[in-house]
């Protein structure tokens, strides 16, 4: 169906549209020669395929970490075509793999860090046409808490001289208690 003077309207496809059958209807203006109020509808489309679906971050907030303890968190996202990731504001000791979305490493400094994670993709380009204006980016800002490592002090074991003092004071207390009992009888 061709409409003279029609303007093409492009709508981004969302994840929920995949597999759905879509159609559209338009009401022509009287100036087009059509009867006012008459509606023209398209035939139903084939089910929507994943030619391009905007990026959406699907993983939750990253868990807290501990200084000196290995840390791993993977950012996940939906969208087509393939998605690339980026992250900024990472705590010292952590690194980010942009192709897999893996945040990993061993945190070295405790604190609360504002980490910005993003997932982006773009529709396939046609020939030499630039698609930089069509890049869709999903951005999430998280607060990543890195807790200090808790150092457990080793329990001190008494030395031989300390054991001797403990034993001697115990014996003195025992004999002192015994001698007090004899005096009171």
Terminal CA distance = 122 Å
Percent helix: 10-25%
Oligomer: single chain
Strand-and-helix sequence, N→C? Answer: EEEEEEEEEEEH
Number of strands: 11
Average pLDDT number: 74
The low-confidence runs, each spanning 5 or more residues with pLDDT under 50, are 125-134
Query: What CATH first level of the largest domain would be assigned?
Result: Mainly Beta
At the fold tier of CATH, the topology name of the largest domain is Immunoglobulin-like
Secondary-structure arrangement, i.e. CATH architecture of the largest domain:
Sandwich
* Biggest sheet statistics: 4 strands, mixed
Number of helical elements: 1
**Helix/strand/pairing class, anyone?**
alpha+beta
Q: What Rg do the Cα atoms give?
A: 36 Å
Number of domains: 3
Strand order of the largest sheet: 4-11-10-7
From the spread of the alpha carbons, the general shape counts as rod-shaped
Please give a structural write-up.
The protein is of the alpha+beta class and 185 residues long. The protein has 3 domains: 49 residues, no CATH class; 95 residues, Immunoglobulin-like (Sandwich), CATH 2.60.40; 32 residues, no CATH class. Helix content is 13%, strand content 30%. It has a 4-stranded mixed sheet, with no helix packed on it. A 3-stranded antiparallel sheet has the order 5-9-8, with no helix packed on it. Strand 8 and strand 9 form a beta hairpin. The N and C termini lie far apart (122 Å). About 5% of the residues have low confidence.
């Amino acid at each position: 169906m061709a409409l003279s003077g029609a303007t093409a309207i492009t709508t981004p496809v969302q994840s929920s549209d995949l597999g759905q059958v879509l159609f559209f209807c338009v009401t022509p203006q009287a100036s087009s020669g059509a009867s006012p109020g008459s509606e023209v509808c398209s035939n139903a489309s084939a089910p929507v395929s994943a030619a391009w679906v905007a990026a959406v971050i699907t993983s939750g907030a990253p868990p807290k970490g501990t200084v000196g303890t290995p840390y791993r968190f993977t950012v996940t996202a939906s969208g087509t075509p393939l998605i690339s990731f980026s992250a900024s504001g990472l705590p010292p000791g952590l690194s980010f793999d942009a192709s897999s979305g893996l945040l990993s490493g061993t945190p070295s400094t405790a604190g609360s860090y504002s980490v910005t994670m993003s997932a982006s993709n773009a529709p396939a380009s046609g020939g030499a046409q630039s698609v930089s204006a069509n890049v869709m980016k999903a951005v999430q800002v998280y607060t990543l808490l890195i807790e200090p490592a808790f150092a457990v002090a080793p329990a001190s074991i008494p030395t031989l001289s300390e054991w001797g003092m403990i034993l001697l004071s115990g014996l003195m207390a025992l004999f002192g208690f015994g001698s007090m009992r004899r005096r009171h009888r």
